[in-house]
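Fold this sequence, please.
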Amino acid sequence: MNDKWITNAIKSMKLASPTSLKITLKFIREGRKQTLRQCLIREFNISSHIVLRSFNYNNFYEGGKAIFFTKDKKFKWEPSKLEQVHDAILM
């Protein structure tokens, strides 16, 4: 069995924002109990809050900067580790 896709997925997750990972996991779990319409509305709301900076979440812009502008892919996530992301800050 080819496990290359698993290895690539793990590499990607290790580079990703810890806060984004926790937000994604939370909403995947919630989405299991929701209709497609509810999921799409929730996704729109999440995206809007992130882009408009409605709450203190600058990792979206940090990721864009590290990929598109400095092109060094040296992300400075805040917080920098999954253990530091408290459920209270998740939407």
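The chain has one domain: 4-89. The chain has a mean pLDDT of 86.
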